[in-house]
Amino acid sequence: MILHVNDVEFRYNSHHVLRGLTFTCERGTVLGVLGVNGAGKSTLLKCINKILSPEKGTVFIDKHDVASMARSDIAKRIGYVPQRHGEDQLTVFDTVLLGRKPYVEWNPTTKDLEIVEKVIRLMRLEKLALRPVSHLSGGEVQKVVLARALAQEPELLLLDEPTSNLDLKNQLEVMNLVRHAVKEHGLAAIISIHDLNLALRFSDQLLLMKDGTVHTLCPKYGLTAQTIKEVYDVDVILGEMNGLPFVLPE
Questions:
Q1: pLDDT value of position 86
Q2: Distance between CA atoms of residues 172 and 136, nearest Å
Q3: 83 near 161, Cβ under 8 Å?
Q4: What is the model's pLDDT at position 135?
């Protein structure tokens, strides 16, 4: 077990966003977090990463209490890809190199540069390495931000809607790259995502949130039409094609 979230609660002013969330995530697992807008998905990821501090409950990463960890130590264990990120004049290579910041005392070492080069190859960004990030397409930028997170050599990846605003080809490519990294390197990934079919295709486990709580935690093949109805208030048909589950609204 790499992550244990225990009885976490969070509120903005008087509004309860998270209410007693408890779940775990194993190494080598992609956990898809689903729910309607405002269910608390992004807030959950920020509480795991100590961007926000829960008013109650604990988050453990590999048996370490995140609340007591320094920001630099969290960055060595958790790679976070937010919904929105700034685009500037740094090159792709330099942007990915920022992922090594938790490890660099003065100047990047040969090891740091080798890790960056390896991640750039993994993400198929070699031809873009010297281009400014601000000159890239949305799909290319998303891969660069994911590469920066992987350069941290984290144990856990947190991705907040990584496929939003991407075309179908880039959605599949980004999700395939995440799944490959998880399986190849024994990471865990938690992905907040709206697309049920992408979640079913690439996740191992699904966590469905409703009103700030865990409504259902199940393997992807354990998802039912009744659960989707209860969470989204939509009638759907669940099926399977070429060994992959899919969902269609009635």
A1: 63
A2: 18
A3: yes
A4: 87
Residue 99 near residue 81 (C-beta atoms within 8 A) = no
Could you report the per-residue pLDDT of 6-55, keeping only the tens digit for each?
999 999 888 889 999 999 999 999 999 999 998 999 999 999 999 999 99
- The amino acid sitting at 246 is F
pLDDT digits (tens, 9 = 90+) for 157-205: 999 998 887 889 889 988 998 998 898 888 999 999 999 999 999 999 9
Tokens 């500037």, located at residue: 88
The span from the CA of 185 to the CA of 232, in Å, is 34
List, in sequence order, the alpha helices (H) in the chain: 41-48, 71-77, 92-97, 110-122, 138-151, 168-185, 196-202, 225-232
pLDDT in tens, 99-116: 888 888 778 889 989 999
Contact 177, 147 (CB under 8 A): no
Instruction: Name the phi and psi angles at 62, rounded to 5.
Output: 50, 45
Phi then psi dihedrals of residue 190, to 5 deg: -115, 120
* Gap between the Cα atoms of 16 and 8, Å rounded: 11
Global confidence as pTM: 0.91
Q: What is the 3-state secondary structure (H, E, C) of 123-164?
A: CCCHHHCCCEHHHCCHHHHHHHHHHHHHHCCCCEEEEECCCC
Other CB atoms within a 10 A radius of the CB of residue 239 amount to 10
Please state, in angstroms and rounded to a whole number, the distance separating the CA atoms of residues 64 and 17. Answer: 24
For the record, the structure tokens of 173 come out as: 């490519």
